[in-house]
Amino acid sequence: MIHRPNRPIYLDNQATTQCDPRVVAEMLPFFTEHFGNPHSAEHSMGRFAEAAVETARGQVAALLGADPREVVFTSGATESNNIAIKGAARHALASGNTRRRVVTVATEHKCVLESVADLAAEGFEPVVLPVRPDGTVDPAAVRAALDVPTLLLSVMAVNNETGVIQDIAALAALARESGALFHTDAAQATGKIALDVAAMGIDLLSVSGHKLYGPKGVGALYVRRRPRVRLAPLFSGGGQERGLRSGTLPAPLIVGLGEACRIAAAEMAAEHDRIAALRDRFMARLRAEIPGVVLNADPRRRIPGNLNLTFPAATAQALMDGSPELCVSTGSACSSAAVEPSYVLRALGLDDAAAARTLRIGIGRFTSPSDIDAAVSMLVHAHALAASPATEA
């Protein structure tokens, strides 16, 4: 993204990403020229749309190391997470499986925590594990939780607030050893880090289009075929998507998701290095001006585009108020209606005062070096203004 004086600098790429122009170009004909229903196999326009959907399914599968038949299209990661967690539990209940424990982690996205909590009313036992100060879950704690027969373990691959990468392969192995299914919310990981569902032993994985430069309103759920993972659908309909997600597929959005995954597969490594360089530039300049800035969570096991920073002498709200041309956030956009300290930061051990001084910086594909320099200048100015005695008075 090239910064213009009348355009804000966008550094909130964990909340959402700009739709890549190449993705938009692929989608546009499916809104106008190729508008057939992909389920209308009786005529050529329906078959053309169906073929495009299946091409996109293959592109998503390729990015995940999956078989295309294992990819179910959804409206996004929230729906995918709900289908994975509730669908696994309800199928187990209906089939006579006696396992009732469902284990997750305190720093998960709200839709995972709420899905697990909802299952308590259906006779399941939700277990929420703490994280260490670096944001990772202790494998020993996971192993101890799995000592009780467990149906499902759900741990996100990359945290949406801190950028911390969990050791998914190791956690999936623990689940497999205990006879539990393993699900990961990979909304923040897909297209950012290498994922291979077979090599990592993942049973269920959730994807969101708008987190990897695709469109909003579309996502995917990976469901292992061998050994087969069985889920109960959340709602009834025409039986599309292997009966797991009924409803007419939004071909334009799915084409966009597929193209976004194709681009990510081709460019992920180079993009990782470019964004890491921008991150290092940002941190070096910011720390030179504000020495007391603290980077939260593990400084190494994290995606390069995420910086969760606690400032020494200004609240996050004051920093945002003092930088109106800078788009950053205090945490998850999906919890932004709640005016309270982030539960993720509390789980890391931050007190309310420190959490209130914390900003999330999200560097992305369209961030330029000039964006980085301007953002640092804005934050330094806002911090000095907020920390000055005159401001406090």
* CATH class annotation of the largest domain: Alpha Beta
Look at the structure and name the CATH superfamily of the largest domain: Type I PLP-dependent aspartate aminotransferase-like (Major domain)
Overall pLDDT score: 95
CATH topology of the largest domain: Aspartate Aminotransferase, domain 2
Instruction: Please name the CATH architecture of the largest domain.
Output: 3-Layer(aba) Sandwich
Taking the sheet with the most strands, its summary is: 7 strands, mixed
The tally of helices reads: 13
Hey, roughly how much beta strand do the residues contain? 5-15%
Q: Describe it for me?
A:
40% of the residues lie in helices and 13% in strands. The chain is an alpha/beta fold and 393 residues long. It has 2 domains: 9-18 and 268-392, Aspartate Aminotransferase, domain 1 (Alpha-Beta Complex); 21-262, Aspartate Aminotransferase, domain 2, CATH 3.40.640. The strands form 3 sheets. Strands 2-8-7-6-5-3-4 form a 7-stranded mixed beta sheet, sandwiched between helices. The protein has a 3-stranded antiparallel beta sheet with strand order 9-10-12. Strand 5, helix 6 and strand 6 (181-185) form a beta-alpha-beta unit. 48% of the residues are buried. The model has no long low-confidence stretch (mean pLDDT 95).
